[in-house]
Design a protein that fits this description.
Structural class: mainly alpha
Strand order of the largest sheet: 2-1-3
Number of strands: 3
Distance between the termini: 71 Å
Helix content: over 70%
Radius of gyration: 22 Å
Strand content: under 5%
Largest sheet: 3 strands, mixed
Shape: globular
Order of helices and strands: HEHHEHHHEHHHHHH
Oligomer: single chain
């Protein structure tokens, strides 16, 4: 019998299976994810510190990159500590309020990430296609407005997603075959009608994905047209060299999301969803600072100077 009383729902627990099917790999996975988390924290906090310390990096591109690092740090911190705890055999349970709260932070970071990537593409478009108007169009006040809009958009949509889960009922302990409180996992654990929640997910997620991708694609179409009009190969290489790290980050992030949620076959396998969830919640926040530091001469130069200073002081 289904019990729909909301007070009963709040006392129900979720059991996150995580990687229970592979107990022999728990120690190895624990060490692997711990190393990834340490690299993520050091990489993102290091990127933030480098951008703050070097006045040369106080430009729109690095301002947005700093906030992307802040979001990625929060993203990883919302997921990885619980993932590490889940690899300890004693306790794989999570209360519904805690699970939904974790989902809220994950959704907030993921949605804000998409906005940041879109804004960074627009910044590249302005810098390459309208260099003379760049300082006027991308003023410091406008930087702040873009960032405030990005955070507000993430909070607003994640609240909407969270509300669509709060209206559901959960009538007994439920198993989620994942290591994280992911939307489809929570939805599958509900014993009430899911039509409204699925409708919200479909409309809002697709709108957010398409709108941000449209900004990115449109920006790079105009960038490509502008670059192709340049006379020398050297002149054409310079603008693209400032975009390759951003394009790499966009390709990895959106490629994973599209694979997970827009290809029907991917929904048939919880293993596929689990691996995909690991990639976009744990691995991508680690890759972003590495991509932008390894492919960016200004960041590498600042890092080299800091290391030289440290060596000289010793």
């Amino acid at each position: 019998m289904i019990i729909s009383d909301r007070n009963w729902s709040t006392s129900v627990i979720f059991i996150l299976l995580g990687f229970s099917d592979y107990p022999e790999f728990h120690i190895l996975l624990f060490l692997l994810f711990l190393a990834i988390y340490v690299i993520t924290v050091m990489g993102n906090l290091g990127m933030i510190a480098i951008i703050i310390m070097n006045p040369k990096l106080h430009t729109p591109m690095y301002f947005f990159l700093k906030h992307l690092s802040i979001v990625d740090f929060c993203y990883s911190t919302a997921v990885t500590p619980k993932l590490l705890e889940n690899l300890v055999p004693e306790d794989k349970t999570m209360s519904i309020p805690t699970c939904i709260m974790q989902f809220f932070f994950i959704a907030n970071c993921a949605l804000t990430d998409t906005v940041m990537l879109g804004v960074m593409a627009y910044d590249r478009f302005v810098a390459i296609c309208n260099p003379l108007l760049c300082m006027a169009v991308m003023s410091q006040k406008r930087w702040s407005l873009f960032i405030a809009a990005g955070y507000s958009w993430g909070i607003l949509l994640s609240l909407l997603f969270t509300y669509s889960l709060l209206v559901l009922s959960f009538c007994r302990p439920k198993i989620i075959d994942n290591f994280v409180c992911e939307y489809s996992g929570i939805l599958s654990a509900s014993c009430s009608d899911k039509y409204f929640s699925q409708l919200i997910l479909r409309i809002v997620a697709n709108f957010n994905m398409l709108s941000t991708l449209m900004i990115i694609f449109t920006s790079y179409i105009f960038i490509s047209v502008t670059v192709m009009k340049m006379n020398s190969a050297g002149a054409r290489h310079m603008p693209f060299s400032t975009c390759d790290s951003h394009l790499t980050a966009v390709g990895i992030f959106y490629g994973t999301i599209l694979f997970l949620y827009c290809i029907p076959n991917s929904k048939s396998s919880w293993f596929t969803i689990k691996v995909g969830s690991v990639f976009y919640t744990v691995v991508i926040p680690m890759l972003n600072p590495l991509i932008h530091s390894l492919k960016n001469k200004d960041v590498k130069e600042t890092l080299r100077k800091l290391m030289d200073k440290k060596m000289m002081s010793h």
